[in-house]
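Recap from last week: sequence in, structure out.
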Amino acid sequence: METNHSENIPINTNKIGQLSFNLGVFFLSTALPISGIFLIVSIFISFVETKFQLLNDKWNLIILFIGGLFIFNSLRFNFLDFNSLPEIERTVSTLDLFNWIPLFILFTSSQYYLRNESQRLIFSRYLISGTIPVLISCILQYRFKIYGPFKTLYGLIVIFNKDLGVDEGVSGLFSNPNYTGMWLSITLPILLLLIIQKKRLNLKKIILVLVLIFLIYSIFLTLSRNALASLLSTFLIIFGIKKILLLSFLIFFIYLSFGILDTFINLRDLNLIGEFQIQNLINKLSMNNISNFSEFTRIKIWLNTLKLIVQKPIFGFGASTFPIVFYNSTNLKMQHSHNMPLQLAYDYGLPISLLLTSFIAFLFLKSFYNIFQTRNLNNQFLFNRCWLASCVVAILSHIYDITYYDGKISILIWIFIAGLKCINDECNFLKIKSNHTK
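Predicted structure tokens:
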């Protein structure tokens, strides 16, 4: 929303809202409660500043309508279907709404702070600055064997740094290596953008390149297949196939250089990546069983989840019931379905799953089309492409796994989707302006 209504309220409110939003992003990875306070302040100010005009946007109205369906479905489960699962506490199922409703509101309000390239650039700097502690925690966990958990504010802030087993990936301050891999994968395109934008080699660019090296290194240490796949998709979107081939030659050259260097220095003694971690990573990426596709664990989970969805396709089984129902049906212990559309269909029914999935897919595809259609009209093409790459990572990874239920990850994802919506609006404006000048 370009309209500025600051004349009706104190002049500093706009700046306070923007600063609160950026500080919320900065503290997001390390101190979720503190981040939440800043983001709540920014939400309130965004609606005051725009006099709730954000709610007039069709995209925002649709997502809030979907939020209403979430609430209706949850209420229905608690009052009508709850007795079918007496083991589940009502509060656990109801609390799942906090994974969705506040974030739909955040999606709406964040657009006020991501309207233009300047705002998104400042956001990017705060995000990368806030990611540095994640990298430090990964290095401390892997190289220096410093283990937690470290707690403060009565346990509200926890830095996990779990004891690292030989076949486990690095998790750093997150509770799970997949969460760490997801965070680093989403932020990688933005870090690449900040580096590419700096044409001259100076101290800031050197620091950013060092952060990039540690970030990619940490992605490998997580042993997360999703993170590694995201690494490839990021480079493909940002650099294209030709530059990826050149990058492959560069990697091969570096590999040869290490081989030569190893004749003078025993690089294995450096233990940059342990042999057990390398073997575990190879095993995860192995495609030996591709001929027996139906025996993949993920495929089994998805097929059994589909069988459950067919039993209650309209309203689902209710949030938080998956572990019990899935175990009763299959004797397998699983916390979720490892596929977000399937999980939504199981929890809240097919209509809600289809609506929310279609909303995100349509916004992404429309933005993708507009970004590349206006590449000659828009000097922000590189920025938009990097932002798009972060969204690709967030969306595609939830087809194979679910990291959404970590609050830090879900907040970051919806902020990026909000930014993508702003980019789409800018591209639409450029197309209209271009047509008028012809």
